[in-house]
Amino acid sequence: MSSAAMKLANAADTSSEESQSLIADMRKAVNTLRSIAVEYEKENRPDKVKEVEKEMLELLASYEDCAFLAEAVKAVPQIYQPSDQPTDFKKLIEAEVTKIKGNSRVSGHCQQLVRQFREVVWDVHHAGQPMPGDEQEELVMTSTQRNILNIKCPITMKPIIELTDPVRWKAVSALLGFMSKLFENCVIAQLKWLNLELHTI
Questions:
Q1: Helix (H), strand (E) counts: the chain
Q2: Domain boundary among 98, 125, 152
Q3: Is 86 in the same domain as 13?
Q4: Disulfide check for 77: which of 3, 9, 39, 130 has CB 3.0–4.6 Å away?
Q5: Which of UniProt's keywords are assigned here (predicted)?
Q6: Would you say residue 156 has pLDDT above 60?
Q7: Are 58 and 116 in contact (CB under 8 A)?
Q8: Is 95 part of any domain?
Q9: Most confident region among 12-16, 106-110, 147-151, 182-186 by mean pLDDT
């Protein structure tokens, strides 16, 4: 590795460490906002809950940007090509961010945090009740069925497009958890069941 590449790698590592520290602080802030929203909900102040949720969504947008940028900066030393011409690092990093956005799990993680926020707020006055919309979570088949790994029901072995009353995801999760406990003492059964779980998610 050339001297320039070495310096670039060191700078990228330092920047990545600083970004990770910032990302950790953002996660703590999300947890704090969630606790504040719960307190407002207990006080029956929905307007304040909405304000806190708005702040959290803005924070998560910044969280995503920071996470994407941290990944991109860390990748720069591997994609950097020495040249006689000046390197446009801004353009290089922006291109890497675009690439990472298409493959990163960060967005999915943020959606999960939003879901958790709304669930804890909902549970303040509606513990044990499904959130609005959850009762509609039926298995819906579309033209994208070819992308689904498991095209047959693991219980009835019928093609999933022929199911007349498909179970909800929460019920499937409960069933998988129950069955996995039954097999916890059998290594071979565990491996077979793990394979089934992976193909039904």
A1: 6, 0
A2: 125
A3: yes
A4: 9
A5: Nucleus, Transferase, Ubl conjugation pathway
A6: yes
A7: no
A8: yes
A9: 106-110
